[in-house]
Automatic annotation (TrEMBL):
<keyword id="KW-0460">Magnesium</keyword>
<dbReference type="InterPro" id="IPR036230">
    <property type="entry name" value="LeuA_allosteric_dom_sf"/>
</dbReference>
<comment type="similarity">
    <text>Belongs to the alpha-IPM synthase/homocitrate synthase family. LeuA type 2 subfamily.</text>
</comment>
<keyword id="KW-0012">Acyltransferase</keyword>
<dbReference type="GO" id="GO:0009098">
    <property type="term" value="P:L-leucine biosynthetic process"/>
</dbReference>
<dbReference type="InterPro" id="IPR054692">
    <property type="entry name" value="LeuA-like_post-cat"/>
</dbReference>
<dbReference type="GO" id="GO:0005737">
    <property type="term" value="C:cytoplasm"/>
</dbReference>
<dbReference type="InterPro" id="IPR039371">
    <property type="entry name" value="LeuA_N_DRE-TIM"/>
</dbReference>
<dbReference type="Pfam" id="PF22615">
    <property type="entry name" value="IPMS_D2"/>
</dbReference>
<keyword id="KW-0100">Branched-chain amino acid biosynthesis</keyword>
<comment type="function">
    <text>Catalyzes the condensation of the acetyl group of acetyl-CoA with 3-methyl-2-oxobutanoate (2-ketoisovalerate) to form 3-carboxy-3-hydroxy-4-methylpentanoate (2-isopropylmalate).</text>
</comment>
<dbReference type="InterPro" id="IPR013785">
    <property type="entry name" value="Aldolase_TIM"/>
</dbReference>
<dbReference type="GO" id="GO:0000287">
    <property type="term" value="F:magnesium ion binding"/>
</dbReference>
<feature type="domain" description="Pyruvate carboxyltransferase">
    <location>
        <begin position="31"/>
        <end position="305"/>
    </location>
</feature>
<keyword id="KW-0963">Cytoplasm</keyword>
<feature type="binding site">
    <location>
        <position position="246"/>
    </location>
    <ligand>
        <name>Mg(2+)</name>
    </ligand>
</feature>
<dbReference type="Pfam" id="PF00682">
    <property type="entry name" value="HMGL-like"/>
</dbReference>
């Protein structure tokens, strides 16, 4: 690494726009979306899509609600050309969807592009040539006038061929490619020349697309550039101003959002941001960001898993597990304090009945993307009591009292620390069963009978059958209720010094499947807590089992 980067790299000069308006604008409606998955995305793949993958992607994009889809660069390859023909000839293009085709500003390529769209009801022909200072010098070896001439020649031919094809409603799009590295006055001049040739009207607008072909500056600079063009382009009302951000600095989404605030009407991008180098801007990300601000994105990502599957299949590239909105892990909290806050957030929402989403660490309801809550909390060595308790409650209906959560979470932590691995909900339940419900010890509860104490009618006499080292034994005790009576029986038989400090119970399941779960917190002679849990269809049996569990655990400790 060169530690004197200033000798090798030059900072991007700020744009002179002191009265910029975009920073205080708010995005309150969806832009026109154009998917470039089948073109910019496809041209960046290790293995470009064949016909079957292209068709699957196209159909999926239509299902998601895209009304403009760049379907290829038909003059570049036979595969692209044939795919465009297939879509048109096989009636694959819904009436409200426009296909878009890209071409360089070269005569033979433009002619071939028009050949490809013959018979389409409507299509966007997208013409581009690079205008940046760098490309003018190193790629084209042309001055400003020479580069403008490439655009003019191409635009004239596009106009002529569109006029010769009246059966197709041709919309024209021009991109000064590498716009962000082009002087603004010059980019505007070239676009204005193209506009003079294409003669847009308010009813038949053209698209001027301003690509960050390579993202070379911070997102605010792109916004300044877009606002400058928005203000200075002639006949702005006859132009659909379009963005095409790439993501070299990792700020493509921010650039697109700022660009919309700066006056753009349209965004070109791809699903999950596949595209050249670090990718095109991720349309899912921008759209779902809007959604979380209460703005309808007019794209339907309510089955995000299907979008991920399709994109992974077509691109033959994985979607990263941390990818915004779509990644496998983006709705999962492993860490204890996050789990605790999420659990409390769900409980608060349930209680308040307020439809406004307000869960800490979850900026969006996973259900809105077709995700369930199964993966919201996963447990490993970074997790705390909240997460463990959440899983037992959600998956097994076990509502651990708070102090028991603390105790059990230490048991779980012991296991995760030892293995270093994640624990599934089923494994946590198994640990819970072994630790409490089937706590190992000398005594096994078998059954009980209660009767009214013949000496005091407000007291209960209880006879409990237990198994001790394989032998059944009857214990007798008297108390204010079955718990008290059983404690008294155990104390007499085993000389125990334990007191019941807290007792709770609840049911899980419904109707004939309902089961009672009882939790007892006992204190030993030193005041240390020890918990026991019992589960049974009969609530009294559950509570006596809970006591047995606590006694066994106290002896084992
Ligand atoms: C930023 C972007 O993503 S733009 C889209 C890029 N996508 C692609 O390139 C994928 C498809 N492209 C291809 O398959 C090929 O490039 C083709 C078939 C279109 C053309 O192939 P070739 O004729 O071999 O030319 P190649 O792509 O190497 O083009 C370079 C030539 O075109 C010129 N050129 C490049 N872009 C343009 C343009 N937009 N308009 C006019 N001329 C251009 C170059 O100056 C160069 O000219 P030279 O040969 O006189 O030096
Ligand atoms: C053709 C243009 C719009 C392009 O793909 C880019 O500049 O990235």
């Amino acid at each position: 690494m060169d530690f004197k980067p200033g000798e090798k790299y030059k900072a991007f000069e700020p744009i002179n726009l002191p009265d910029r308006q975009w920073p205080s604008k708010v995005i309150d409606k969806a832009p026109i979306w154009c998917s470039v998955d089948l073109r910019d995305g496809n041209q960046a793949l290790i293995e470009p899509m064949g016909h079957e993958r292209k068709l699957r992607m196209f159909r999926h994009l239509v299902e998601l609600g895209f009304k403009e889809i760049e379907v290829g660069f038909p003059s570049a390859s036979q595969t692209d050309f044939d795919f465009v023909r297939f879509l048109i000839e096989e009636g694959e293009i819904p009436d409200d969807v426009k296909i878009q085709v890209l071409t360089q500003s070269r005569e033979e390529l433009i002619r071939r592009t028009f050949e490809s769209i013959k018979g389409a009801k409507q299509a966007i022909v997208h013409l581009y040539n690079s205008t940046s200072t760098l490309q003018r010098r190193v790629v084209f070896d042309l001055d400003r006038a020479g580069i403008k001439q490439i655009a003019i020649e191409g635009a004239k031919l596009v106009r002529q061929l569109a006029d010769e094809m009246p059966e197709t409603l041709v919309q024209m799009e021009y991109s000064p490619e590498s716009f962000t590295q082009t002087e603004l006055d010059y980019a505007c001049e070239v676009c204005a020349e193209v506009m003079k040739i294409w003669k847009p009207t308010v009813d038949n607008k053209i698209i001027i697309n301003l690509p960050a072909t390579v993202e070379v500056a911070s997102a605010n600079i792109y916004a300044d550039q877009i606002e400058w063009m928005h203000r200075n382009l002639p006949d702005r009302d006859k132009v659909i101003l379009s963005l095409h951000p790439h993501n070299d600095r990792g700020t493509g989404v921010a650039a697109a959002e700022f660009g919309i605030m700066a006056g753009a009407d349209r965004v070109e991008g791809t699903l999950f941001g596949n595209g050249e180098r670090t990718g095109n801007v991720d349309v899912v990300n921008i759209a779902m960001n809007m959604y979380t601000q209460g703005v309808n994105p007019e794209l339907d990502f309510s089955d995000i898993n299907e979008v991920v599957r399709t994109v992974e299949y077509c691109n033959q590239l994985p979607v990263h597990p941390r990818h915004p909105y779509g990644g496998d892990l983006v709705f999962t909290a492993f860490s204890g304090s996050h789990q605790d806050a999420i659990k409390k957030g769900f409980a608060a929402m349930k209680k308040s009945n307020d439809p406004l989403w307000a869960i800490p660490y979850l900026p969006i309801d996973p259900a809105d993307l077709g995700r369930n809550y199964d993966a919201v909390i996963r447990v490993n060595s970074q997790s705390g009591k909240g997460g463990v308790a959440y899983l037992l409650e959600e998956d097994y209906g076990i509502e651990l009292p708070r102090l028991l959560q603390v105790e059990f979470s230490k048991v779980v932590q012991g296991v995760t620390d030892q293995t270093g691995k994640e624990l599934s909900s089923a494994s946590i339940y198994e640990i819970f069963e072994n630790e409490y419900l089937n706590a190992k010890g000398d005594i096994e509860f078998v059954n009980h009978q209660t009767t009214v104490d013949p000496h005091a009618s407000e007291r209960r006499k209880l006879i409990a059958t237990i198994r001790e080292k394989g032998q059944e034994r009857k214990l007798e005790g008297v108390g204010t209720g079955p718990i008290d009576a059983y404690m008294s029986a155990l104390k007499q038989a085993y000389n125990l010094d334990l007191k019941v400090n807290d007792y709770r119970e609840h049911t899980t399941g419904f109707g004939s499947d309902a089961v009672a779960v009882a939790y007892v917190e006992m204190r030993d002679d030193k005041g240390e807590p020890v918990f026991g849990v019992g589960r049974h269809a009969n609530i009294v049996t559950a509570s006596l089992k809970a006591i047995t569990s606590a006694v066994n655990r106290s002896k084992g400790h």
